[in-house]
User: Fold 4-carboxymuconolactone decarboxylase from Wenxinia marina DSM 24838.
Amino acid sequence: MGESYDRGMAIRRTVLGDAHVDRAEANKTDFDVPFQELITESAWARVWARDTLPLRERSMLTLAILAALGLDGEFAMHVRATARTGASEEDVMELLLHVAIYAGVPRANHAIAIAKKTFAEMREAE
Assistant:
């Protein structure tokens, strides 16, 4: 792997945490190695690692997009990442209000349920 991959892996670990990335790496097979490399080098190294937006704002944008698209598993994963990105529970509620207006109340309502559950799990784990 090259410098881009290393930069992507570093930011991926910063945002998602070592435990999550270690699990993903341990579950990697020959079949999905190309995909893991793609997301590490494109999403993490070329987008998340840019210095134009702080991690908090990138986190909030990501959450809003995932909620609007109804991508539950990814949404919950990025709610957990707020512990490392600096986005607060209040930030998440604010972005979900925007999701309600621009992507639909049912999408926001569903994402709120996921966020509530995920934040509760995070508090229990502390």
